């Protein structure tokens, strides 16, 4: 019986004290430490010479040198998986590291258990990627990818899909970058309804008809909203939903992340294999709860489930949505029960009720709405973009789906 080889690691960190602490975590995690260095040429030389499984890369503000080193590692040592770590639990910093190729993001001081878990997950992902290359071709080096953001609530009726649609539009309007919204509720999804769109094909048809889920194939199943937001919606075929599984959904999401800056996923209000696959594939999870007792209880339960799935709490952002004007639980009580601070609390807004009936999302009607303001604040937090949203977003995209817009 042969034992699995111990994963090898190098540490790239210009701070000697930080390197010492991280080296201790590496050894306590039972990993092989092959060297330490700072940024730049010495980092790429060490990676090329040692050929480690993992490069632990420190990233702090300002991040220019860390990002330049990360990019160089992607070019010169593509078989080495990069895991970044930082004292900053900042979404913009986390997203920047992921965007340039980091597979995970840890908070410093790095804890041995969290490090061992991140290394194991990253190497499993890399093994699957290489196996897919052997069977289906593809470039040898991993490419930069967008950010996958899953919006979830285990309980229906808390405004999750409303938030998904408005957040996607806010990101599109704020950043003017490519954004796609995926309706992962292939049976009862309402994303298209929220946007007053018709779905021509949708995610169920894609999963049923296509064995090849590469980016060019997946793009053919997208519809385009008048704002330029791409949508992978749900068509009204009673059988198609069965084709969307926990196995093929992550492939679809990762294919979209190769083409889009932001991939937003609206999940079913449940906990099943499809939901698990979306949450574990995500760079960021927006957990939505209202301020009623059962919603708060369910949100607390999903946090415990995420813990068992190995999803770091640093990836979860709590949004409290006052979907009625008579909440029973205070925001402070909800935070205490769930065990997370609220990233934002969305106030009750009557304009949301009107928008649900008209299919005209609030963020497109007025930016003076309190709900719309909250959506743009959340979009700024996710994207790292500051300032006011663009008044006139581009109407059409140049990614090959411009001719298929929804009504």
Note the main attributes of this structure.
8-stranded mixed sheet, Rossmann fold, 407 residues, 5-stranded parallel sheet, 16 helices, 2 domains, disordered C terminus, globular, alpha/beta, 16% strand, single chain
Q: What's this, in brief?
A:
This protein has 407 residues and is an alpha/beta fold. The chain has helices spanning 16-28, 41-50, 64-76, 91-99, 112-136, 160-175, 191-194, 203-209, 215-219, 249-257, 273-280, 293-308, 331-338, 350-358, 362-365, 370-383; strands at 8-12, 32-37, 54-58, 81-86, 104-107, 147-152, 179-183, 223-224, 230-232, 262-266, 284-289, 316-321, 342-346. The protein folds into 2 domains: 8-136, Response regulator (Rossmann fold), CATH 3.40.50.2300; 147-383, 3-Layer(aba) Sandwich (Rossmann fold).
Describe the model:
The N and C termini lie far apart (61 Å). Helix 2 packs parallel to helix 3 (64-76). Strand 3, helix 3 (64-76) and strand 4 form a beta-alpha-beta unit. Strands 8-9-7-10-6-11-12-13 form an 8-stranded mixed beta sheet, with helices on both faces. The protein folds into 2 domains: 8-136, Response regulator (Rossmann fold, 3-Layer(aba) Sandwich); 147-383, Rossmann fold. With 407 residues, it is α/β, with parallel strands linked by helices. It is 42% helix and 16% strand.
**Which residues form runs of ≥5 with pLDDT under 50?**
137-143, 387-407
The mean pLDDT is: 82
* CA-based gyration radius: 21 Å
CATH architect. name of the largest domain: 3-Layer(aba) Sandwich
For CATH, the homologous superfamily of the largest domain is named as P-loop containing nucleotide triphosphate hydrolases
**Beta fraction:** 15-25%
Order of helices and strands: EHEHEHEHEHEHEHHHEEHEHEHEHEHHH
Helix content: 40-55%
Structural class: alpha/beta
- CATH class call of the largest domain: Alpha Beta
- Beta-strand segment tally: 13
Q: What is the number of helical segments per DSSP (H or I, 4+ residues)?
A: 16
CATH topology of the largest domain: Rossmann fold
* Anisotropy-based shape: globular
Distance between the termini: 61 Å
- Across the major sheet, the strand order is 8-9-7-10-6-11-12-13
Total individual domains: 2
Largest sheet: 8 strands, mixed
